[in-house]
């Protein structure tokens, strides 16, 4: 490919003076998706993408294998309401997971099937919450990937819709009151009641009564006068006595928390008592069946701890450690099993990204055993019966094992398989996962998971990372990973600072002014893989999405010599203007704001769009963006793609843009996932030297 083959992209002589810096923005016109010039450019980019990628070798074989691997399907832990259970399941032939219920007499039936609602498969079930008696179901749907959830209520026995739609309910928790006659929920103010351009913000907490008009009858109980970027959490104890309410500014790793005794306070005007306010810590509170308040917090405990207190007097001074902070493992979850002679508490942990569950005396917190988990993988979603019991359920997965649900019986100490993945798949027995420790530039020890089949010599390798928002990367079944590894490649997941693999201090070591640590950890992982003989710079690709797309953008602009290829999905790349678009202002607490002179210096120092330099041999790069993405605006990738196409000196390594309509940042139909994976893997294979052949691979083959 020659530079002249790229679509024409006008370079504006646009330079802004920001806090003493002259900041160029030659492709600002690409921020406007409706401009005729942008539309023409996108059409030509789409044509270029298909010319370059559609003819790559092995795509049919790759497509077939990815479909086989995704055919394992998914299943979730059960949620119980009395003798009725609810769970999600997707079989091999289904485009989306379906919500099922099992009636007390054992009859299973589908409650919400997104495919039955929309033949285009662009409708998604975003969340759901049954009432406390299992008679009504609140659920949220969005369309075309926009994540603009609308809230509905269904009669579970008949399947009939009894409420909705209630709009402006994106990221909305629902807290039912006993009896199913009312619930608390979160809703944004109407666009005409907020300043222009701020309609994605300004949430409030409301009380809604079934059968009333949400536009005229809902009562606002909280949120007026607070930060416009606040997110709110709301819950009601099983007995209906206690309301808890939390507020966090955007995605901040801290929150304010209140509690209210609903027995002595009007539902429409709850009298809130502060649990914590103005504290730099994240805390949640759950009132148990025994009347104690269980406080899950990282306050004075970066790896988290579980405390107990009296819900009527929950100030910090009254908290008593039940499960203290562990010096190595991060506390992630807990469940209470109290239908026993000696009631117990199950505590979920991640130790260097690997999961475990321990058993504790409920009264004292003393450790008395552990749950025999299936392997070195990820456990999640520990659930119990709301009315109490001796059973708990959780999901398990690892790099070669599809998601399954396991049941733990605290009376016998036995673990059993409750539900396996609905589809059968064969995974080569010689695929291995190993955890490798390495040292980052500042001496910090970091870990990564290396998935590979036996083999020698430098191999085509994908290095994947995220490193932000306190999100951990733990072992999980992935068709992408397995298809790549079966073909003879190596797939690596780096547990970078910015995530939660080692607790809140690990997160904060990769945010704000310390964001460069994340990129240094990533480069160090690449250098370790090369030094250990796993790969070489001409065979190493990087991959990431969203905040991980920012990571990829920083990787290829800071160390273009280290990588041969890159897949950059739904990325943040213009860090000077990111907060002007999508949900950007909710991320100021993670990245900083360009309006602040000091924080601008952090952002501008690594902003990938502003670090592109002419005459540099950049890796082959594929940007994948989704037109309905309302979290991260596709403008980031458009501008960065144009900048790299103009600047790169390596005609043999193309810079491409894959633009997809009717999908967004979140979930998508399985067929769409297959298409995306085929495109990204075939592109990566082409520029790292992985040969995808149309025959099964033998151990050691460099081909699928």
TrEMBL record:
Catalyzed reactions: Hydrolysis of Pro-|-Xaa >> Ala-|-Xaa in oligopeptides
Name of the featured protein: prolyl oligopeptidase
Species of provenance: Actinoallomurus acaciae
Family affiliation: Belongs to the peptidase S9A family.
EC number per UniProt: 3.4.21.26
Keywords of the record: Hydrolase, Protease, Serine protease
Top-level taxon: Bacteria
Entry-linked InterPro entries: AB_hydrolase_fold (IPR029058), Pept_S9_AS (IPR002471), Pept_S9A_N (IPR023302), Peptidase_S9_cat (IPR001375), Peptidase_S9A (IPR002470), Prolyl_oligopep/macrocyclase (IPR051167)
Residue span(s) of domain Peptidase S9A N-terminal: 7-419
Enzymatic class: hydrolase
Record has Lipoprotein as a keyword: no
Domain spans labelled Peptidase S9 prolyl oligopeptidase catalytic: 477-689
């Amino acid at each position: 490919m020659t530079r002249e083959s790229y679509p024409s992209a006008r370079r504006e002589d646009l330079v802004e003076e920001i806090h003493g810096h002259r900041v160029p923005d030659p492709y600002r016109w690409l921020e406007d998706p409706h401009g005729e010039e942008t539309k023409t450019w996108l059409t030509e980019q789409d044509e270029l993408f298909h010319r370059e990628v559609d003819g790559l070798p092995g795509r049919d074989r790759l497509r077939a294998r990815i479909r086989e691997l995704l055919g394992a399907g998914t299943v979730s832990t059960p949620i119980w309401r009395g003798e009725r259970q609810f769970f999600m399941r997707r079989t091999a032939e289904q485009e989306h997971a379906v919500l099922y219920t099992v009636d007390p007499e054992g009859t299973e039936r589908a409650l919400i099937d997104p495919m039955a609602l929309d033949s285009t498969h662009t409708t998604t079930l975003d969340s759901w919450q049954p009432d406390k008696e299992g008679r009504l179901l609140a659920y949220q749907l969005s369309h075309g990937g926009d994540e603009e959830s609308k809230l509905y209520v269904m009669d579970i026995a008949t399947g009939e819709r009894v409420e909705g739609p209630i709009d402006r309910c994106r990221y909305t928790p629902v807290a039912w009151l006993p009896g199913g006659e009312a619930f608390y929920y979160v809703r944004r103010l109407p666009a005409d009641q907020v300043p222009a351009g701020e309609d994605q913000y300004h949430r409030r907490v409301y009380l809604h009564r079934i059968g009333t008009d949400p536009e005229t009858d809902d009562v606002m109980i909280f949120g007026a006068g607070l930060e416009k970027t606040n997110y709110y959490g709301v819950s009601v104890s099983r007995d209906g006595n206690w309301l808890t309410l939390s507020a966090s500014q955007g995605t901040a790793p801290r929150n304010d928390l209140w509690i209210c005794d609903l027995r002595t306070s009007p539902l429409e005007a709850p009298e809130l008592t502060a649990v914590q306010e103005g504290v730099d810590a994240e805390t949640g509170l759950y009132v148990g069946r025994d009347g104690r308040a269980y406080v899950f917090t990282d306050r004075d405990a970066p790896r988290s701890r579980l405390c107990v207190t009296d819900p009527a007097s929950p100030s910090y001074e009254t908290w008593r450690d039940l499960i203290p902070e562990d010096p190595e493992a991060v506390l992630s979850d807990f469940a209470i099993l109290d239908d026993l002679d000696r009631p117990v508490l199950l505590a979920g942990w991640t130790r260097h990204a690997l999961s475990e569950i321990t058993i504790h005396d409920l009264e004292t917190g003393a450790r008395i055993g552990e749950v025999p988990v299936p392997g070195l993988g990820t456990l999640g979603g520990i659930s119990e019966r709301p009315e109490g019991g001796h059973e708990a359920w959780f999901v398990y997965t690892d790099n070669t094992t599809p998601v399954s649900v396991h049941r733990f019986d605290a009376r016998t100490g036995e673990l059993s398989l409750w539900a396996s993945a609905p589809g059968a798949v064969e995974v080569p027995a010689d695929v291995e996962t190993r955890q490798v420790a390495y040292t980052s530039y500042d001496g910090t020890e970091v870990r990564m998971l290396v998935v590979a089949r036996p083999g020698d010599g430098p191999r085509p390798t994908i290095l994947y990372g995220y490193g932000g928002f306190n999100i951990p990367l733990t072992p999980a079944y992935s068709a992408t990973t397995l298809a790549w590894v079966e073909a003879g490649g190596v797939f690596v997941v780096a547990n970078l600072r910015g995530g939660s693999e080692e607790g809140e201090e690990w997160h904060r070591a990769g945010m704000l002014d310390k964001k460069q640590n994340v990129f240094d950890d990533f480069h160090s992982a690449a250098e370790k893989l090369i030094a250990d003989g796993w790969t070489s710079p001409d065979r190493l690709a990087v991959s990431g999405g969203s905040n991980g797309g920012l990571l990829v953008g920083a990787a290829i602009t800071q160390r273009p010599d280290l990588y041969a290829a890159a897949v950059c999905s739904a990325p943040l790349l213009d860090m000077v203007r990111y907060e002007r678009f999508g949900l950007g202002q909710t991320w100021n607490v993670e990245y900083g704001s360009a309006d602040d002179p000091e924080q601008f210096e952090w952002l501008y120092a690594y902003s990938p769009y502003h670090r592109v330099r002419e005459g540099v041999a950049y890796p082959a790069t594929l940007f994948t963006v989704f037109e309905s993405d309302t979290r991260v605006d596709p403008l980031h990738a458009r501008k960065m793609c144009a900048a790299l196409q103009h600047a790169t000196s390596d005609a043999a390594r193309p810079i491409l843009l894959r633009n997809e309509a009717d999908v967004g940042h979140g979930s998508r139909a399985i067929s769409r996932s297959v298409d995306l994976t085929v495109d990204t893997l075939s592109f990566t294979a082409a520029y790292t030297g992985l040969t995808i052949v149309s025959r099964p691979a033998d151990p050691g083959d460099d081909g699928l």
